[in-house]
């Protein structure tokens, strides 16, 4: 979801905390200080915090950025130029800092508007971030800042090389601040996504390892700093973007403070080269880890999306299978089990009856003169009649009785645990219920139908279902012969009567 338009009122409650954080980050940058003989802090964190403030607060954040810059800048500049000059310079410098943050914020929002998506979620967003958000705003404002400091005699070296040096450092220092601190906004914006459980012990190993390696590299053996890379990598893999941003910010502040105090692997010769080497280390490490963190997020999102797609398709497939199964076992017109399904159920019931030695009967039902219904009122009314009869059968029979459509206007019922005498009663009840069933026609008329039934019981000598069905069919034939609308039991047939299929 694309989410940067939160209401102004709810965003404004962050105004004061952000102002305080910006002032504190300014004092931290001043405190960790500049290299000897230089006036530019190695990392100007307020430049990044300022962008975060504008991203969170929108335009009202400009006032906060300007105020925070004043509160940090005036006391520092006053030590070099005196309070009178510091005021004027501070006001202008604060305006330039606000402009820099605004340019970075605009670049961020332009990307979001163009792509209709939250910025800094995809690894490919990083190119725009490194160039338009980190580099261009620093490059645009640094010449004016340098000019301002030069006119106010606040530069340590006013020669051309001194001014160029100062300009280069200013750009790198501000870029580093934006590069390291601005992703904190992404942690805040996407706070619901990280799902990092706050278990202090789990978070202890990167803190301990980074602390140990930094202490070793800065105080005992500088090349040990190389060990920091795999630990930062592991922290990023394990703790994703939040782990990476926090670890890199802490590492950058500690290393640059140590370098300013002449400690660590970067302290060698020309301060400009020290500065550049330190920045190279911070930039290359941060850029690599940012790419890794966002690539991980992308892979995770794709996996979640893929999993939900697979789940949705599995569900659709299960539904389709269910439907297919239903189509394969159900008669479409009446919703009753079709012949194959009924035969399967009947075979099961026969098996149970044999195993438990209980009686079982079947009932073959045929509607009387159904052709006349079709011929007189049309096929549609015939269909309605078949449906109505099926409903009547369902309502009249027990749930344990299996009812099905044999085909055409013929239905079958298997009655488990039912003797022939009981089956006759069921058949009679059904015959009366069907005779009472009617389908309404236009003009207040309605059509009724009767039914004939043949009933047979399972015998030990029956080889298969067909034997049973043949006797029921034979009884049904006689029901038709005797005048229809009646029930005939297999025991009522003449002894020498051969089974014959009724037409
Ligand atoms: N509307 C409709 N008619 C069907 C369907 N299946 C079969 N029929 C019709 O059912 C009628 C069955 O006719 P016959 O076999 O002569 O049986 P009958 O008219 O009921 O006569 P008796 O069984 O001898 O009482 C035929 O007209 C078939 O076309 C169906 O699904 N819908």
From TrEMBL:
Q: Which PROSITE patterns does the record cross-reference, listed alphabetically?
A: GGDEF (PS50887)
- Where does this protein come from, organism-wise? Silvimonas amylolytica
Q: Does the keyword Transferase apply?
A: no
Family matches, as InterPro entries: Diguanylate_Cyclase, GGDEF_dom, MASE1, Nucleotide_cyclase, Rev_trsase/Diguanyl_cyclase
Query: Which Gene3D superfamilies does its entry note?
Result: 3.30.70.270
Question: TM spans, by residue?
Answer: 12-30, 127-147, 167-188, 208-233, 245-266, 272-294
Principal localisation:
membrane
What is this protein called in UniProt?
diguanylate cyclase
Q: Which UniProt keywords apply?
A: Cell membrane, Membrane, Transmembrane, Transmembrane helix
- E.C. no: 2.7.7.65
Q: Subcellular localization, per the record?
A: Cell membrane
Reactions accelerated catalytically: 2 GTP = 3',3'-c-di-GMP + 2 diphosphate
Q: Which residues form the GGDEF domain?
A: 358-492
What Pfam families does this protein's entry cite? GGDEF, MASE1
Q: How does it sit in the membrane?
A: Multi-pass membrane protein
- Keyword S-adenosyl-L-methionine on entry: no
Question: Cross-referenced PANTHER family, in alphabetical order?
Answer: DIGUANYLATE CYCLASE DGCM-RELATED, REGULATORY COMPONENTS OF SENSORY TRANSDUCTION SYSTEM
């Amino acid at each position: 979801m694309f989410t940067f338009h939160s209401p102004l009122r709810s965003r404004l409650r962050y105004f004061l905390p952000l102002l305080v954080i910006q002032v504190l980050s300014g004092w931290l940058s001043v405190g960790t200080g500049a290299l000897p003989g230089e006036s530019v802090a190695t990392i100007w964190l307020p430049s990044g915090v300022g962008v975060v403030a504008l991203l969170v607060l929108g335009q009202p954040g400009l006032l906060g950025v300007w105020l925070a810059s004043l509160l940090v800048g005036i006391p520092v500049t006053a030590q070099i130029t005196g309070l009178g000059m510091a005021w004027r310079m501070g006001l202008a410098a604060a305006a330039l800092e606000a402009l820099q943050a605004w340019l970075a914020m605009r670049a961020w929002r332009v990307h979001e508007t163009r792509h209709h998506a939250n910025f800094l979620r995809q690894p490919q967003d990083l190119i725009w971030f490194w160039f338009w958000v980190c580099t261009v705003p620093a490059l645009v404002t640094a010449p004016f800042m340098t000019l301002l400091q030069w006119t106010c005699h606040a530069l340590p070296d006013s020669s051309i090389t001194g001014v160029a040096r100062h300009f280069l450092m200013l750009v790198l220092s501000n870029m580093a601040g934006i590069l390291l601190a601005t992703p904190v906004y992404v942690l805040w914006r996407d706070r619901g996504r990280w799902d990092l459980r706050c278990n202090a012990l789990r978070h202890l190993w990167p803190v301990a390892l980074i602390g140990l390696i930094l202490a070793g590299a800065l105080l005992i053996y500088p090349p040990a700093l190389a060990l920091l890379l795999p630990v930062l990598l592991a922290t990023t893999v394990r703790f994703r973007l939040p782990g990476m941003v926090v670890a890199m910010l802490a590492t950058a502040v500690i290393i640059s403070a140590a370098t300013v105090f002449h400690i660590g692997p970067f302290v060698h010769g020309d301060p400009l080269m020290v500065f550049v080497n330190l920045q190279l280390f911070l930039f290359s490490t941060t850029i690599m880890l940012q790419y890794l963190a966002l690539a991980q997020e992308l892979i995770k999102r794709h996996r979640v999306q893929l999993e939900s797609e697979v789940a949705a398709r599995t569900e659709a497939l299960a539904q389709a299978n269910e439907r297919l199964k239903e189509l394969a076992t159900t008669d479409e017109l009446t919703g009753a089990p079709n012949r194959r399904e009924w035969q399967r159920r009947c075979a099961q019931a026969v098996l149970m009856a044999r195993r438990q030695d209980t009686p079982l009967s079947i009932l073959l039902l045929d509607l009387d003169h159904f052709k006349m219904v079709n011929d007189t009122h049309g096929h549609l009314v015939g269909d309605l009649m078949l449906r109505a009869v099926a409903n009547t059968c369902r309502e009249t029979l027990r749930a344990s009785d299996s009812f099905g459509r044999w085909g055409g206007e013929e239905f079958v019922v298997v009655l488990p645990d039912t003797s022939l005498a009981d089956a006759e009663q069921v058949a009679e009840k059904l015959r009366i219920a069907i005779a009472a069933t009617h389908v309404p026609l236009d003009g207040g008329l309605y059509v009724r139908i009767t039914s004939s039934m043949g009933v047979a019981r399972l015998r030990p000598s029956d080889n298969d279902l067909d034997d049973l069905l043949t006797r029921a069919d034979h009884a049904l034939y006689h029901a038709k012969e005797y005048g229809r609308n009646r029930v005939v039991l297999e025991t009522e047939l003449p002894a020498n009567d051969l089974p014959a299929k009724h037409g």
